[in-house]
Amino acid sequence: MKIDKEEIILLASLLHDIGKLSQRASKESLGTHAEVGEHFIKALKSFWEEIVWIEIKKLVRNHHEIPTTKDELILQIADKLSAIERRQEVRERISSKQAALVAITSKIKLHANPPTEKYYQPYPLQIKKEILFPTEKEKVEEDAYKTSWEKFFESVKRLSKYQDCDFVTLYYLLKKFVLFVPSATPWEKDSQTVPDISLFDHSKITCAIAACLNKLSENDLSLQEMKELVKILKSYKEEDFERRFNSLDITKKPLFLLLRGDIAGIQKFIYSITRPEPEKDTRKTAKRLRGRSFFVTLLTEVIADWIIRRIELPVTNILFCGGGRFDLLLPIAAEEKIPNLLSQLNKWLLEEFNGELSLQIAVIEICPKDFLDLSFVYQKLEDTLAKRKYKKFLEISETNDFFTPEKSVPLNVCRVCLVSQVKDNEICCIQCKKQEEIGNKLPKIKYIVFLYGEPIPKEIFKEELKRPVEVTFKKLGVYVYLVSEEEIKTFCSCIDNEQKAVIYVLNPESDFILENLLDFKRKGKSISFGFKFIANAVPKVLKEGINVKDEEVKKGDILSFEEIAELSKGAKYLGILKMDIDYLGAIFALGLKKEEMSFSRISTLSTILDLFFGGWLNVICRELTEKWIKENKNWQDAFESLYYILYAGGDDLLIIGPWDAIIELSYKIQQDFTAYTSFNENFHLSGGICFVKPLFPIQRFVHLAGQALERSKTCEVKGFNEKNRLTLFDRTIKWSEFKEVFNFAEKMISWIREEKMPRGFVYFLHNLEKETTLMWVPYLFYNVARRIRDEKIKAELIERTPVFSNNNSLRIITSYVSLKTRGG
Asked: How far apart are CA 203 and CA 183, in angstroms?
């Protein structure tokens, strides 16, 4: 397959520093990283066509030499603009083979000083604690680089012959194998580079910049201007660089655009569904909730993907995508296209979702000098976006036909979303049916496929139950399929040679390129491979003969809300947990010093946080489920998860579970997040929990959990708002108080079960909170003496008088004990 000249510069910029991985993996000196990178390209001679191989090899070899061609100028400008972010400071000089990547989370500073530096080992990306959680190991473990290099090289070789679709695959291979590899290390003799930027993020941003530069005309950026830019950028380590750089006309010339998109109305869209009257089982409702949540995640990715495809840019130019938001790096030449693209998208969103979802876009011009102070750019971008939110559907509302009335408006509306129109006697609309179908399929899927072209004929899959779910985005030119392990081969065989497909492995545990799928690529099909981490834990039944609420649940079913509540100890309630990261906007805008703000660092921080909510959250749910099953052996191997993740992404989550288990989950998430973010006090979560009966209206319990979260985030202490708290039972406590409060609550439960404390004493303590005078102290002592016989328990209750004086703790303890000791 012939590769155009534009793709050559993209490949060279993506792989320009790959020699650093090979260089550090070898015990011998192999030369400069540019020379070693050339050897890597040479070793893959059969991978590319000869002319492509020659050009890429030359660009990689010469990316630090005097540029002689336009492509070399583009690569050097992109590399140097990306490298401006590297910080120099006096620190211990360490060999490139030994220096580990500094965790970006250990460098954030807001209201507290950051901790000592933490580090990642350069192993391939996997959702494992030893890989994702930073440690104090400053030096690389023996053979860590060798492991990553050999697996990366072997994975590339397995692709056989290069096709244009393989660019996406190479991008994800780099993400897997060099995400935790530093792009530069403190090996210099004098001032050393801080190794806090990953090789993946440096390569990604270099490629994104090169892709934009390659789109510029001679009028946008002349060859002479490119030479001038390269000359000044080569001196970026010199002391007087910033003053000289900012004084040049070329550095003040807008060359790029930073576009931020925000899908408005997501929370309301996901949770504003009702349960139709005929439906008493909440199983369908749970599927719709999960389906809606996943659909919004897909929608965000599809829109970001559509915009870069329309401007003919690679995947690297999606700097961030998650939580209903995305950031794109675009060439200045794309500026005039954006209003039309936004108009098309909002017109489509209005037609599809009846105004429930809309897209706001903010665009900021970027000059080369802005790479020295991206904090200003991001602040301006966020301010612009905030103003756009007051102008919903502005582009299409100004058209002449926007207010043209419909000839007739049917009165029948969907009983689930209460928005879309339906035909007579139908309960729900097409969208709600599709979202229920998505929710039903999600626990069974292994792959997500983006197919560009015509959809796969449904009749190919004869059995409806074994048919991939198709999510149609026809007007955006893509069909998304949710495919199980059993369906993938049949699906790939149906892809036409004229179509393009990207196959994402969902939550891969090891290598994500599978030989049986590569066979289809080798037969001429245009298939790319990638991976995604999505928090998808659900209480899926794993074996036959499981009885909940005296009713048998089939293998493969997802427990309903009533069945989840039935797994609670004591009262049969659901717990609804809502959490998010405190001060996240400030962390991105102000957490790094002015000279540290860069696309790569922001990209790294976004990726790290996304891996926690998208990947590690599944591990937390699994670990707590295994612990629960050990304590309740009659449920051995009964179901996959105790918890139902309705939404997790970006920086927040919503999870349903048995009420007592959800409390334990909240603390485990907070504890793991603290370790995951380097024990940096500038990172913390707030949480809110509400407890409801299983048939409680969804909109209401989401609202109540949201109110509890808001209370945690606006808790007033000595006149100041403090976050980093948990609200439950209508009371708020610090996370630092959690263990003490619930350990004592469990102790009281054991006293009640051993009949050393009457259950009525709990109600006495519960009502004691209402006492507003100091008379509650003698009142407490009197009741302890009168109602408790065990002297040790008496002494412990009296000792805890200071704790009881904290009404928040007392209400939480008594409410917890009361619910957990309630029968039936």
From this structure: 8
Apex CA 483: angle with CA 482 and CA 486, to 5°?
Answer: 160
Joined tokens for residue 496: 């036409």
Helix/strand/coil (H, E, C) string of 68-108? CCHHHHHHHHHHHHHHCCCCEECCCCCCCCCECEECHHHCC
Beta-strand relationship, 720-722 and 715-717: antiparallel
What's the full length of the chain, in residues? 824
Contact of 500 with 444, CB cutoff 8 Å: no
How high is the mean pLDDT of the chain?
86
DSSP 8-state class, residue 545: -
Those residues with Cβ within 8 angstroms of residue 478's Cβ, 6 or more apart along the chain or in another chain: 302, 305, 306, 450, 451, 452
Please spell the DSSP secondary structure of 23-53, one letter per residue: HHH-SS----HHHHHHHHHHHTTTTS-HHHH
Residue type, 360: Q
| Sign of the torsion angle spanned by Cα atoms 335, 336, 339, 345 | negative
C-alpha span between 565 and 656 (Å, rounded): 9
Query: Could you give the CA distance from residue 527 to residue 623 in angstroms, rounded to a whole number?
Result: 35
Give me the amino acid identity at 602: I
Task: Report DSSP letters for 569-638, one per residue.
Answer: SSS--EEEEEEEETTHHHHHHHSS-GGG--HHHHHHHHHHHHHIIIIIHHHHHHHHHHHHHHHSGGGTT-
Fold identical between 256-397 and 546-728? yes
* Under 8 Å between Cβ of 295 and 435: yes
- Listed residue (209, 208, 584, 589) closest to 378, CA to CA: 589
* Long-range contacts at 29-38 (CB < 8 A, ≥ 24 apart): 32/64, 34/60, 34/61, 34/62, 34/63, 34/64, 35/61, 37/61
Dihedral sign (CA 216, 219, 220, 221): positive
pLDDT digits (tens, 9 = 90+) for 381-414: 888 888 877 666 665 655 555 555 655 555 688 8
Beta-ladder partners of 644: 656
Kindly write down the DSSP assignment for every residue of 210-279, as one continuous string: HHHHTT--TTTS-HHHHHHHHHHHTTTTSTTHHHHHHHSSGGGS--EEEEEEEEETHHHHHH-----TT-
- Residue 739: both structure tokens together: 């263990």
User: What token pair was written down for 219?
Assistant: 């009028």
User: Residue 387: what residue type?
Assistant: K
Q: Of the candidates 656, 690, 692, 655, which has an alpha carbon nearest to the alpha carbon of residue 572?
A: 692
Q: How far apart are CA 345 and CA 333, in angstroms?
A: 20
Tell whether domain 256-397 is in CATH 3.30.70.270. Answer: yes
Its CATH class, for the domain covering 546-728, is alpha beta
Residue 719's pLDDT band (boundaries 50, 70, 90)? Answer: very low
Give the whole-angstrom CA distance, residue 281 versus residue 279.
Answer: 6
pLDDT tens profile 759-799: 999 888 888 777 666 777 888 888 889 888 888 998 988 88
Judge contact between 13 and 78, C-beta under 8 A.
Answer: yes
CB 196 within 8 A of CB 85: no
Give which of 210, 319, 365, 367 is closest to 602, Cα–Cα.
Answer: 319
| Identity of the residue numbered 611 | L
What is the Cα Rg of the chain in Å?
Answer: 29
Domain boundaries, the chain: 5-186+193-214, 256-397, 445-532, 546-728, 740-820
Query: If DSSP codes are grouped into helix, strand and coil, which group holds residue 554?
Result: coil
Question: Contact 328/304 with Cβ under 8 angstroms?
Answer: yes
Q: Which residues does residue 290 pair with via DSSP β-bridges, in sequence order? A: none
Pairing of strands 526-532, 500-506: parallel
* DSSP SS3 for 139: strand
> How are beta strands 325-331 and 256-264 bridged, if at all?
antiparallel
- Rounded Cα distance between 17 and 21, Å, is 8
